[in-house]
Amino acid sequence: MVNLNINKKKKKRQTHFNSNNKAPYMSCPSTCQHPLMSRYFMLHIFSYILCISHIQAMPGLKLLRFLSIIVLLNIAAGSTRIMASPPAVKGAYWPSWSQTFPPSVIDTSLFTHIYYAFLSPNNVTFKFEIPDSTAALLHNFATTLHRKDPPVKTLISIAGGGADPKLFARMASEAKSRKVFINSAIEVARRFGFDGLDLDWEFPKDPKEMQDLGQLFEEWRNVIQTEAKSTKKPPLLLTAAVYFSVEFLWAETYRKFPVEPMKKNLDWINVMCYDYHGSWDTTATGAQALLYDPKSNISTSYGLRSWIKAGMPPQMVVMGLPLYGRTWKLKDPNVNGIGAPAVGVGPGEEGVLTYSQVEKFNKENGATVVYDVETVSTYSYVGTSWIGYDDELSTTTKLGFAQALGLRGYFFWALSFDAGWKISTQASRAWASDE
Ligand SMILES: *[C@@H]1O[C@H](CO)[C@@H](O)[C@H](O)[C@H]1NC(C)=O
Ligand SMILES: *[C@@H]1O[C@H](CO)[C@@H](O)[C@H](O)[C@H]1NC(C)=O
Q1: What is the Å distance from ligand 2's center to 12 Cα?
Q2: pLDDT digits (tens, 9 = 90+) for 101-158
Q3: Which superkingdom is the protein from (predicted)?
Q4: Residue 415, SS3 per DSSP
Q5: Is 264 helix (H, G, I), strand (E, B) or coil?
Q6: Whose atoms come closest to the Cα of 250: which ligand?
Q7: Distance from the alpha carbon of residue 23 to the mean position of ligand 1, in angstroms
Q8: For the segment 3-28, what is each residue's pLDDT rounded down to a tens digit?
Q9: What is this structure's pTM?
Q10: N or C: which end of the chain has fewer CB within 10 A?
Q11: SS3 of residue 23 by DSSP
């Protein structure tokens, strides 16, 4: 049993899983071809060569294993095809509490959609009560980002990792409260000039709440369509931030997201492909957002495929990328791979460092940086400090994977963590466009 923290902020989630499993791969005829596959193949080869030439320590790398990953990927990716694709989503969440990172400093050429994080309704009336200070932030956010060159779309993200999931469970359980919530959310989005709404309820806790979530989206979309008709404005976007996997296989209570109503009523889903390992398990280091886990299903490749297998069209799936790392204190400085014994958290508050802080830490302390080909993740260590994170290379490789699956795009948590726009710039360039 491990704890799997999947929240953006601080909450813990109990999970159970059997550790000697293998990630399943979709099958498809060997004749499958994919226009982006060769590009992805080249990228992976490229990252492989890059790391042989740059990094002395390459623990656990076996060429055979690496080649088999490529072959399996080829097969998996061949089963989806990009049709006339809607424009890519390059999203990012903006933490409204970050005092030092106003919307005016955002480089909008790197993004298409920016989410204001977060708003929550009153926990009794389910209406949004906006204090003057928040009203000023919302107004400034939407206005500034729409006036930038180029402009980006803005969405209000509701709930978030720090919100009380029970509030949303109560709201979604009755037609009357759903209606109040929906009308109030739409009114707030329009009042401040936003282009859409995003729900980040972490998470419905049982099958009944999952069903209520589906009902909520059904009614929400109806009201959005009606409102758009009567105001003659483009309909608001409606999106949701979701768990990395469509099912909660490891939790005490099995439940699965209501794919049908989500597919019918949302514009896309933001899949939170991170927080697989962290301070809730200090016995071993972990790659918190790894693409492949040879030992378990808790990985981005498994999670994204689970959504697609469950019927979510790839074009409605947006892959989440972390702009932060998670740290551990090694038991033995000489045993420093992924899964190495640890005795606590490493640098950073609760073992979390933003990408900018990781870079600074590595530089100041002369840390050894390792790109791990097997998992597609990056880690660094020096002394007993160990940091698992994503750099430009691991991010780019994941983006290649997402494109090969035919996904709609990617999003970052969170904007201010990559102060020099390094990863954001690299990601925007790497996302090859078909147009
Ligand atoms: C991993 O996922 C596959 C398919 O969903 C399943 O058959 C397998 O039992 C899972 N492994 C574990 C350990 O949960
Ligand atoms: C609503 O929020 C208030 C203030 O945070 C809290 O004291 C109260 O217990 C909450 N009510 C419910 C029903 O959760």
Answers
A1: 21
A2: 999 999 999 999 999 999 999 999 999 999 999 999 999 999 999 999 999 999 999 9
A3: Eukaryota
A4: helix
A5: helix
A6: 1
A7: 7
A8: 343 334 333 332 323 232 222 222 22
A9: 0.85
A10: C
A11: coil
